[in-house]
Amino acid sequence: MDTAQIFDDFIKNLKVQNEENIENRFGLITRRLNIDFYDSDSKSDHGLYVGSYGRDTAIKGISDLDLLFELPDSVYTRYNNREGNKQSQLLQDIKSSIAKTYPQTKVRGDGQVVVIEFNNDIIEICPAFRESDNSFTYPDSNNGGMWKKTDPIPEQEKITSSDIECNGNLINLCRIVRAWKDKNGVKIGGLLIDTFVHDFFMSKPEYKEYSLENYDLLIRDFFFYLKEMDDDRKYWYAPGSNQHVYKKKSNFKNRAKRAYENIIEAIDKKSNNTVYEIWRKVFGKSFPYPKFIQESSYNYTDKEEYIEEVYPVNITNRVSINCEVIQDGFRPALLRSMRILSKNKKLLFYIETTDVIEPYEVVWKVKNEGELAHRKNMLRGQLIESNEKGNKRREASSFAGPHNVECYIIKEGYCVARDRIDVPISNI
């Protein structure tokens, strides 16, 4: 494997591809709000990209775009003098304004922002008022309403300047970590990812000079850094603004440990063609896999389906799956507590925990691997539905080899959570 070329291609694959569409929608939304609040038809004045796109750390397939629109101070005075939940009233008026441009699209208020739900992506608009220090005050309509502060400009400036100091490695790594988040269903915010990556480089300056030839080692050492995070720590300081960034109920540490172990294996098998499949376990389809090598693999089937090709992926929630192993005459056991599985067992895959609120749809994927699965023409890999009540999937351990099952939770047209469980079946 040519490490430098592979990681150069990987980084290129992660770049946002739909800038023209994003710019067009930004212009239409900003123009509408300028007409209603400034008597201007400018497509750029008072609008600001925030979030990962504003920090330039977003990746291809971004499905949630954050925009901030700066309102005149007179608007703040007018709403702040009202009775009741003035923040909710402001958001409702912003919603009504945007609905003039998108009358056939679902536009709704959501606590602190106005959300526009398109078919394949979501845009969140935060109305805000600029303060003398260039921070912004924005409305929060929750719990009766209040004003809160955000400070995105110094965060953007700090990420940009630090990336220059790190020879482009900082933004590259921020994007790579997002690919891991989406592939492995990691519930972690974009600003927290960027904060972790920034702190990693600042605390370990030797990595600032790493070139593409060493990116496998750079990524390995970052995931070691991530998996060793202090379990008791609740928040970090955002670069530039020093605002608190909370981890909340994130599952990032366990999945970082799994990624680290896979990366160690990939580095050990660097000269083996199976290395691409290992990297893809960590980063998904964006990681390059030369076609002639992929098609020569026992695990390749052109019938395999991928969730990101059917639904936009926007991981905002957690899900953990398990499997009940059943055999006549024996007590049921849980797969995650077993090192290896014998043949001829009944398997019932189910959602053990999730924080996704019903209703939602569940999609499964069963993938068999290895020479025996290839010979039997049983590689599978299609996206399939539950076949038992309660969003469960019943299978059987019919032949030996490595197998895995993935579960995806679909909410309002988006894949919001995913998990995977390995099913190693022995010849016994």
From TrEMBL:
Q: Name one Pfam family in it.
A: AGS_C
Q: Report which superkingdom the organism of origin falls in.
A: Bacteria
Q: What keyword terms does UniProt attach to this protein?
A: Antiviral defense
Asked if the Swiss-Prot or TrEMBL record annotates the protein with the keyword Cell division, the reply is no
Asked if the Swiss-Prot or TrEMBL record annotates the protein with the keyword Membrane, the reply is: no
Q: List each copy of the Adenylyl/Guanylyl and SMODS C-terminal sensor domain by range.
A: 302-426
In terms of InterPro entries, this protein maps to: AGS_C, NT_2-5OAS_ClassI-CCAase, NT_sf
- Give the protein's recorded name: Adenylyl/Guanylyl and SMODS C-terminal sensor domain-containing protein
* Organism of this sequence: Chryseobacterium paridis
